[in-house]
Amino acid sequence: MLSQIKITTHVDSGKLAKFKSINTSVEENDFCSKMRRKKNSICMKCYAVNMEKRYPSFRTNIQSNSEILSSRILDTHELPRINDLAFRFHSTGELINDIHFLNFINIAVDNSRTYFTLWTKRVDIIKRVLKTHTLPDNLKLIYSNPKVDSKDIKPPKHFVKVFTGYSKDTKIKNINCKGKCVDCMLCYSDNNVKNIREIIK
């Protein structure tokens, strides 16, 4: 039986208007559950867990994705065909294990014309997998900073940027993530910006 990965098409009124993404469950991810209990973690303000509870069909799709992507390496004919110029891995969700990341790598390799971006906190998985595998040129890694209101930090090895959330009362002036991604594209293009900063909604 073929495994079918579900692709999310984002609403035109949202931040990710005109984008599509592949997402997984945060409810069923042990790492996410642990991070949501960690004091001062951005995960304490997780919006994805509320989305899973609010939208049953979305929940079904991303829980299915979690199982498909983390259980085995998919055959090439099971990988989705993506025609978008830019595509996001995880607008909600987090890497589950090495297999999950390897499947994302294979999707990027199989869709070489698309610019993929993956947000993750799982430096451990990235480091382990990339000891024996090569990151494709069209897959860029953005470190999802677990700390709220953090000072700018250097991206970890293999990552091109750091994404950090800030409180509404922050004194940080250089917030550079505003509005819709399609009008900015800092995260979806090659540029010299290393730290992306957004006010937490």
Per-chain topology:
Layout: E1 7-9, E2 20-22, H1 30-36, H2 48-54, H3 56-71, E3 86-89, H4 98-110, E4 115-120, H5 123-129, E5 139-144, E6 161-166, E7 195-199
Parallel strand pairs: 2-3, 3-4, 4-5, 5-6, 6-7
Antiparallel strand pairs: 1-2
Helix pairs in contact: 2-3, 3-4
Summarize the structure in short:
The chain is an alpha/beta fold and 201 residues long. It has helices at residues 30-36, 48-54, 56-71, 98-110, 123-129, and strands at residues 7-9, 20-22, 86-89, 115-120, 139-144, 161-166, 195-199.
Kindly describe this structure:
It is built from five helices and seven strands; from the N terminus they run E-E-H-H-H-E-H-E-H-E-E-E. The longest helix is centred in the N-terminal third of the chain and has 16 residues, at 56-71. The protein is 25% helix and 16% strand. The protein has 201 residues and is of the alpha/beta class.
Q: What are the salient characteristics of this protein?
A:
201 residues, globular, 7-stranded mixed sheet, single chain, 7 strands, alpha/beta, 16% strand
Shape: globular
Mean pLDDT: 93
- The amount of beta strand, in percent, is 15-25%
Q: Helical region count?
A: 5
H/E series, N to C? EEHHHEHEHEEE
Strand order of the largest sheet: 1-2-3-4-5-6-7
Poorly predicted regions are none
Report helical residue fraction.
Answer: 10-25%
